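Follow-up to my earlier ticket, as requested here are the two runs.
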Amino acid sequence: MLRSMTGFGRAEVTQQGVLLTAEVLSLNNRFLEITCRLPRLLASREWQVRELVRESLSRGTVTVTLSVQWLEAPVRSFSPKLAQAYYRMLQQLVQVTGMADQPRLEHLLRFAELFDSGYDPEAEERLWQAAQQALRKALGQLQQMRRTEGKNLAADIRHRLRTIERIIGAIARRSTERISEAQQQLRKRVAALLQDVPDPQRLYQEFALMADRLDVSEECTRLRSHLQLLRQLLREREPVGRRMTFLLQEMQREANTIGAKANDAPISHWVVQLKEELERIREQAQNIE
């Protein structure tokens, strides 16, 4: 089943007076790039957040945002000794710089390290447990959204593959007719120039060379083979975006070869249609994991 690389997931977990919210946003990318926006208490857990994301996703630009809201105001305390030390340091700075201002309370309030939370030392671990729950739920929502969009992409690609198959069939039939027409034209031109029946052996050699130049049966066969592989990829559960892109590049090369060999207006028209359909599928494949 195809999965898109575009999606969003959001989840909330409430635990012991804390509301933790996890949001995960993913966009297209050839590789997996993860950006984390974490609260200070969870900053040391960034590598674990990245591992959780890697367990679920293999490609995309992923932004993870964790936010904490305290439902109960935490008890705050401060260190008197540390406050006195900071005050003396500020007084020394005033003396050294010769400033007229004296240290005030508002200056000390800017030092966050003077204040300690009244929560027990296990608070961070409990917060991380809640963060894991919220993040897993958000990733689950993200994956569901990516699968839904991937299902829609697969339906569109299957429709375009059927169109391509009809175009290839039309090209193959017209190619056979084109060879026969070219042979008849060559016979008439040679006869008109020589005013006589040309050497049959020499004429057959020219027919063979012309047929080889105009024949696109090998290209059509390879295109049909690539179509089968693409349909098979649409049924796989593993990420297939890169393999689809490679196959589409090969199909574009075959289409270019047919256009160069055809020398026929109807075939050239079908080749243009074929390349348009391949380009639309390529654009869709860029959003497939």
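Run two:
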Amino acid sequence: MSDLFKKWRKIRPSISEQNLLFLLYNVNSLNNHIADIDVLVNNHSPQICILTEIGKAVMKRIPHFPDYNTILQEGTNAFGEIETIPEPTSVGAVYVPPDSTPPFQFFTKCSNKPFYIFGDFNAKHTDWGCEGNNGSGNQIVSWLELTGNEMIIPDKPTSRSLWGRCSTYESARQYRPPWPSHLVALAREVKALFIDKRSQLTQQKYESKRKWILKDQNIWNFVRPTFHSFSPPFRGLTVNSVIMKNPKDIVDTLANHYERHFAEPTPDMNNVIQQKYISIYDKIALLSNIPLDPIPINE
């Protein structure tokens, strides 16, 4: 079976017609529609597939389609030539964003020779069955009349999105009736039940993880050690801008410093405020020792 899998190869169905068949697809992110392209290729078996709006993510990893050679070019517009008899024919792929002007400067390069330009022009005009005209559609019609070129118009709409059917915002209620009140109430009840169950499951996972952390020494699987068995080398003690390196001098200096630091403070008897509080302290010292009740840990 493994040897069979190694030899297995997907073969496209062959067609008997000799006409050149193109497949144009404004794919709008190729990585999300590879399965759709595979179905179209199997059903129609085109010799040339032209894909626009493939997305920048495809440039990192180009997908492979069996029996097809992939030619990829960055940018919104791409042109190339194919070998046909009796002379080569130029083929272009164009994408025109909404409210933009078609790249007629590229079209003029193909004058006086056979060419085909495919793409998503985002152009609307009554000449090809649209309800109204837009700027891109008017410009293309004027260019066709000026140059004498012809347009291949599809017999049905090429866009199935709501954006392609209306150019202004319209409420969805015109296209989809609202739910009955009992279905709305049921949906809200199910949503509340789902949120409650999800909260319970999250709490259970948290408690289970907490018990596991408290067991044995599992907490060290989650926290990183803060203290390390390393200390920088002691190179000496700086006193009055002089580095002291003799160990005995260092010990004596530190001992004198901490002896003065933790010694009983010497009050300033010329300070009235200090005199006041020293008097209060002396009175408290004369009081008898009264045992205090032990303070519980919880307090």
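The only thing I checked on run two: The two ends are 74 Å apart (CA to CA). Let me know what else you need.
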